[in-house]
Amino acid sequence: MEIRVELPNDITQHADPAREALEAVALAGYLSGKLTSYQAGRLLGLSSRFEFEALLKTRGIYDHAYGPADLAEDWDTLRKLGDRASNEGRGRA
Question: What's residue 41's pLDDT?
């Protein structure tokens, strides 16, 4: 889908007004909870969650950034996957 936005003249004088507008939409959507980090990153053409996290940091946005709770959840998921793989390996022996 293509969306067109008319920008005021003073904003069009910025170095990359289209990118600034797109980032504003993506960040507002993410911070409001309307977009996930994945969706916001895709909207911006980023290839990974880590690139989006880096963008948040460059904008001084830390309250929604990947934190200890996210790490604990990811670690728990990896542990469960490891246990599952280990159990499947035992069944083949």
Answer: 94
